[in-house]
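haha ok so turns out i had the wrong file open the whole time. this is the CORRECT one, sorry everyone. sequence first:
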Amino acid sequence: MSRIDDLIAEACPNGVEFRPLGEVVIIKNGSDHKKLSEGDVPVYGSGGVMRHVDTAMAVGPSVLIPRKGSLGNIFYVEGEFWVVDTIFRTEVDEEVLFPKFLYHQLLTMGLGEMNQAGGVPSQTQTALKKLRIPVPPMEVQREIVRILDQFIDLEADLEADLEAELEARCAQYEGYRRQLLKIGDANSGRTLPMGEIFEMRAGTHIKAAEISDEQTEGKPYPCYGGNGLRGFVGSYNYDESVILVGRQGALCGNVHRAEGKIYATEHAVVVTPKLLIDMSWAFHKLIEMDLNQYKTKSAQPGLSVGRLKQVEVQYAPVDEQRRDGEVLDKLATLANDIGIGLPAEIAARRKQYAYYRDKLLSFKEAV
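then structure:
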């Protein structure tokens, strides 16, 4: 910050000039892209790149400002591009304004909240042109952009490192799970159909209107469908430790577990033990078995209870199950904790970046 402070103190000791955006930027509308052929030129809408075409509307650098929809999605582009009618493109007077400085500056100005119409969020050229933006000397602009670009690169590197760590831990957990279950099962040599080891039945239908996104006093019971927790309901149909297997759709065969009073819908197969089985071991075992491979080959893939009952399971003595289940639970918790911590860490870094960006781009206006 001292470098920027020194530059500002030297170049504009009495403050920074603010000018209407319309004085330093030409704002232009986008146009339809549907008749264009496929190519390498990115087509931008308010949500980002939509497709690639063979024709360019303009060549960057340019700052793209949404006109409809996600008004806060501002983009900086270099090279050839095309914009549709939901986003404006800009031509910047580079004698007085560095395009990437404008991009960073607009990110701090709350354009996402500047809705100019009811219904679909909308922005107008008239409102944008009236925005007053700081125009410090070019050397100040370039130094700020240099610092912010470094910050963005560091943040991207950190995110990549964190995601790589998560992938490594998940792979480690899966490898240990596979090895532990393989060794334990090989020691027993016992194999039975799932239907002789587990009780399996589909859950019960419940109307979507009866499922709440939030847990309340009137709807305290977790409701599970084929892909895990759907929400909360006012009644329960199971009160024990259960394993839930998704039975419909492309993701059928995914495995979850639940304890206590829960409601299971018809999209889940509820699995409980017939024999003396450790439920932690059973949970990890069913994940490792990749039950999705037994789905029907139809337009709407699914798993039938009858088919699952026929699938053979090799299992270890219950004392080995308890030991392996405990180890696998600990490994799964470690991987899951990293998965929870990763988004929080990334969010904290982005918040830190936004703080320094806003601080760098706050100027005293010259009088």
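The first strand starts at residue 18 and ends at 20.
again sry for the mixup
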